[in-house]
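Ticket #361: bound-state structure for guanosine-5'-diphosphate.
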Amino acid sequence: SLTIGIVGLPNVGKSTLFNALTKNDVLAANYPFATIDPHVGVVGLPDARLDKLAELFSSQKVIPANVDFVDIAGIVRGASKGEGLGNQFLHNIRESDAICHVIRAFKDDNVVHVDGKVSPADDIETINTELILADLQTVEKVLPRLEKEARIKKDKQAQVKAVQEAQAILEDGRTLFSAGIRQGTEAAEPLHELHLLTTKPFIYVFNVDEDELTDDAFKDEQRALVAPAEAVFLNAKLEADLAELDEEDAVELLQSVGQHEPGLATLARVGFDTLGLQTYLTAGPKESRAWTIAKGATAPEAAGVIHTDFQKGFIKAEVISFEDLVETGSVAEARAKGKARMEGKDYTMQDGDVVEFRFNV
Ligand code: GDP
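RESOLUTION: The complex was predicted; output attached.
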């Protein structure tokens, strides 16, 4: 599955946030027999439609889509020069599909800032620089070999050109992503084997004081620092507290600080979107469930997320939009009113499709 790697300077609240992520009960509640990797935090994607479906179908349980976060400790100033950017760090960050940078904005004289002062802009610059330098090292290491190869193999010339272009962007102090060279797109294809870090999308998490959670002027200022990347504002300590509470108490605590959902839920939503994912829904007496697919996935691809046999033996999908299902009140009524569509293998899944697959085994 797709994962988001969490990075940030020391003492910004990464461990606190990560504890909240791992205490989150999504996995424990829905997959009681799953082995839980201590370095992976799983957050359920909030989706009110699932509760509605569970009501309609009298489902025994609700299973949301998940977003996985991986703790990637170890980035400090000078890290790319070997002071902390260990192999494990590089491996973990390369495996991530997006990078979530946690930034300290909270003020607390008892918590030392590594650079002596709280400055989100400086922290962003520091981490960006380290990632850019790490990529530059990678590029400089492979370029001489590639250039040599290209002299004999003409088909390597396009790759050399792409790597040279990447080098120029990095030397200019820019991330490849900001220059439009983005992991998973054609522009990044010639660079694929280099596993460059700055081709990944970034999400910025500002760990703010509680009163800043509702300070729109402050938040706009921080947003401007990272735009067009997404910014999420949360208080890591509050998230850790929320993760320990039952729903009723959590809602009360959230309301007391002017919030309507935990920061982790917002983070899951933003993460999901940044990764280019969407969901479709299934519903029945056993469970109402959201399944994760890439945006633009076809019906057979969506079926394959449930089971590979569903994809291989795909015949068709019966699709009812969530709105139509709620309006008609049942699958039978939706069918009677012509709201249930039979879709074939070329159908592109839409957000909010409630689906039942027909397949051969
Ligand atoms: P890490 O080094 O980035 O993993 O940071 P930690 O999660 O270990 O946090 C460093 C210190 O900051 C700890 O003493 C935390 O209790 C404290 N801390 C974390 N988040 C917050 C916060 O939102 N507000 C305040 N005041 N302290 C925090």
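RESOLUTION NOTES: Residues 120-152 form the longest helix (33 residues).
TICKET STATUS: resolved
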